[in-house]
Amino acid sequence: MDCHRKRQIHIVVFPWLAYGHIMPFLQVSKFLAQKGHHIYYISTPKNISRLPKLPPQLCSNITFIPLLLPQVHGLPPGAESTSELPIHKVPYLKKAYDKLETQLTEFLKKSSQVKWIIHDFTPHWLPPVATQLGINLVYFCIFCASTIAFLGPPSALFDGSRQRPEDFTVVPVWMDYPNNLAFKLHEMVSHQECMDSVSDFERTGTVLLSCKILALRSCFELESDAFRVLSKIHQKPIVPLGLLPPSPPSNEDKGDENWEALKKWLDSKQEKSVFYVALGSEVSLSQEFMYELAFGIEKSGLPFIWVVRNRPLVEGQLVQDIMPPGFEERVSDRGLIIRGWAPQLRVLANSSIGGFLTHCGWSSVIEALGFGQPLILFPGASSDLGLVARLMHGKKVGLEIERNDLDGSFTSDLVAMSIKRVMVDPEGEHLRANAYAMKEIFGNVELSNRYLDEFTRAIEEFPPSNDDVC
């Protein structure tokens, strides 16, 4: 009915405390605010302070609500996001996040105008709170549709049929189409380090059961089979949000003072000759793996930019300490190592870049394929990174570096071979062509906005409860 389309809806947005979750949730918030709805974006003070400034026209429709993160034993003081923690400390962040229940419940009780909460996989305690207050839930899964399809129906997450890491290393029976989606054993063993007493699977199963709408950062053009499986196993509205491609970097944006020097270096290289290496803010490599990766990059003989983060990989040992001795001097004529942060979108958009060695974070993959960059897939061993690598390898837009299934080990020769295959070898031409063609999906802002329109309509036109009248 028209009256439901026109009324302003008050919506709480509540992401998990990780940058890769916080930003897509903000993107969706901004779109809904543009459509005239009021958003209460809830996170912790430090995470809110890191968010980019809102466009002036949206300020009246987005209210940031900071909740103080309770201290828990084992969580370093001041840490409010996964990027500030080694993987084995993440369970303590989940315990602290769970303690936000009291503050969030108090806010919701005082805010009777709130009719929807768009939440993440983490708050398994939220459904009874929302039910008591008559609030509808949207589970916004920032992962690709294939990942959430792989997890299966809630029964598969609760019935104990997949408890051991080995149980996740096979393609599940409900994935009834040709695919190679399964974790490697070392990925599952590592991922268990970041789970607390309530497993991620239990959290996800609980919110999947209770949500009115499951929204995903994907689209039918990319994952039609996975969406079909999801509709079949969940029997509720499955709404793609599109890929949420980032806004292209504008020439007016002078956010990074080092960009000019970096651009000068890139512009001195031949077109598509440089590969870009970035393993995200949360992937930790041992010294042995770091050395092996560096030797492989060196053996490729190709120009590269490697962004190496500045935080400790192992407590007390800075990243600089675990680069191989003499490596930077040996590659100085063709390699640029950047410590800390780099303007990734600007780098990927540069004509000199011809490939991306990535940890397979979904946001990074979306950014790279938005510019048609082929992928050298080196998945981190947590979250859904391994499944994203299998998906992209299967789509033939990249090549996964071979690793030992049990311990994740690999050789520098295989690293070098994979880089050269993706970048220059004739055998990699189809990968380069397929990745370039993906620009039409991954870089298509108009397509993404059409999906966001559909999502907005799904909320606006959702049958109201008895006490919710026009």
From the structure above, extract its key features:
single chain, 470 residues, alpha/beta, 7-stranded parallel β-sheet, 6-stranded parallel β-sheet, 21 helices, 41% helix, disordered N terminus
Task: Sum this structure up briefly.
This protein has 470 residues and is of the alpha/beta class. Helix content is 41%, strand content 13%.
Describe, in plain words, how this protein is organized in 3D.
With 470 residues, this protein is α/β, with parallel strands linked by helices. 41% of the residues lie in helices and 13% in strands. It contains 21 helices and 13 strands. It has helices at 2-6, 19-34, 45-49, 90-98, 101-110, 126-133, 145-151, 154-158, 185-191, 200-210, 220-234, 259-267, 287-300, 327-330, 344-349, 362-370, 385-394, 412-423, 429-437, 439-442, 445-460, and strands at residues 10-14, 38-43, 62-66, 114-119, 136-141, 213-216, 238-240, 274-278, 304-308, 335-339, 353-358, 375-377, 398-400. It has a seven-stranded parallel sheet, sandwiched between helices. α17 links the parallel β12 (375-377) and β13 (398-400). The model is unreliable at 1-5 and 312-319 (pLDDT under 50).
Task: Work out the number of β strands.
Answer: 13
* Molecular shape: globular
| Alpha carbon gap, first and last residue | 10 Å
What's the oligomerization state?
single chain
What order do the strands of the largest sheet run in, or round the barrel if closed?
Answer: 3-2-1-4-5-6-7
The DSSP helix count reads 21
Low-confidence stretches: 1-5, 312-319
Describe the largest sheet: 7 strands, parallel
Q: Tell me the Rg in angstroms.
A: 22 Å
